[in-house]
Batch of 2 targets.
Target 1
Amino acid sequence: MSNYVITPPPQAAIPVAGSEALFPVRRVYCIGRNYAAHAVEMGHDPDREPPFFFQKSPDSLDASGRFPYPVMSTDVHHEAEMLVALGRGGTDIPEADALDHVWGYGLALDMTRRDLQAVAKKAGRPWEIGKSFESSAPVAPLTPVRGASHPTSGALTLRVNGEIRQQGDLNQMIWKIPEMIAHLSRYYRLAAGDVILTGTPSGVGPVQHGDVLEVTCDPLAALRVDVV
């Protein structure tokens, strides 16, 4: 007998590559401007400065392979990213121990209603209206960590209809994964099920109905998304 007054919503989750298992998601943290070339293309200084984060709703995650073009926007952009999934949490996590908290890695898209984000920025308001909406984080199946297989380099590439639009390398991240985990843990109580989107290289741009987006970064499972 449940004491909930309404039916609880489904648990947000990401599939695991080569398995029927699911990774349950608690929170989604996203770092902003974590590749220097992307910071420049967005009109900002690429110098290393304290990192900043925003959040997406866990139910923004979508592993269906379809991205429904959202309402109230005519300028929706792709941002290809690597995702880090935490299997352990804590507070004040030392950088030296941070990778011990990682369960696995995957690929994701931080889809952005750029026009709505620009209005929010100009007014000094939060970005959520441009960043956190239905299906705004398409995801590929997660690859579990095996031994010490934490990716620190590798080409991160996004193709739109077969044409390369974004290409960078994981080693170009300004703030590395242990630093991100340690920094977040000073401000939040991290927990198993939290995921971190680690930033996007340069080349972000608009998508249109009918586009096919493909994100790759070996050896992670590729992400293919149809804009519908």
Note: Helices lie at 36-41, 95-98, 114-122, 128-131, 177-187.
Target 2
Amino acid sequence: MFRSAFPLGRYAGVAVGAHWSVAIVLALISWLLGESVLPASAPGQPALWYWVTAVVTAVLFLASLLAHELTHAVFARHYGMKVKRITLWMLGGMAELEGEPPSPRADLVIAGSGPVTSLLIGGASIGLAYLTGDVLPVLAGTGLAWLGITNLILGMFNLLPGAPLDGGRVLRAAVWKGTGDRMRAVRVAALTGQGLGVALVIVGLAETFFMAQLTGLWLAFIGWFLMAAAQAEVTGGLARQQLGDLRLRAIMDPHPVTAPGWWTVEAFVTHDAATARRRVFPVVSFDGQAVGVVSLAELARLTPQQRLVTRVSDACRTPARFAAPEDKVADVLTKTPVRRGTGLLLVVEDGRLTGTVSTDDLARALELSALGGQHVPA
């Protein structure tokens, strides 16, 4: 999701982007308001004004989602955590934080600040619509009221006690405070999140099949997402607990066999790939810049004639992301997809390749951590 987001600038010092699915949400909200909500609430208005009000209200709603996530980011930085970026997508927004909250109190404040912001925006919008009812045009008042009600619903939904919702993190903070065991708190929050996800899937499917309401599919999709995300919370928590601050520099291969991007595929296969005991290779430019990744399986799909004329740089693919030597291994495990067999993480400094990390390297780091921290390379 982060890779395919387009930038929206920086707010409060945090980079903000939007996933392409935001366009779908913007269109759906505009359609719902322009074709249903606004005509029903304020009949007899010109169609153009319905749509203008609908689009403006939809954009303001996305702005309220951004405010929700920015509040998380501001409080996270207050407690010493780094914020990589905020990405808006079809299920709301996501603030990518580095590290873990230093205390249960910090966890509670960071998690609770987002829903509180949504509730405040909701209350303020409804109050403004009420107080200016005799001044604002009826369509503007209706749009403000819808914005307020939607933010109130969003804030209350986010407070449901299940990870990865903010309410799940509030629950995590409470259990952490009560037991002193953060990993236990992560498991409790994840378990409730999975239970909540299952309930939403059941309700959504029942609404779809027994009440013929297609909105149930959306509810079921949200439930499925909660189940998957809750499991990821447990996986990420275990990885961070086992690996601590272990960095990629400690587990990467600093001298990988590279594929020169300016060579033809045939030349690379004949001279390097045939003798290297590897299936996946980093591709570099003439000056050592990391270009991409290529596997033997991908090269095998080319015809003999294509191998003679195709450069390796034209046959490679851009990796999921370029990592830095000081990136934490735990963050890579939970946030970066590295496909077994054909995946390879390129570690770069100033654009130049300094090493590679494979799925076997990641698995080895986890297994050594499970055997005891003293076995993990420093």
Note: The beta strands are 6-11, 14-18, 82-89, 92-98, 259-260, 280-284, 290-295, 322-323, 345-349, 352-357.
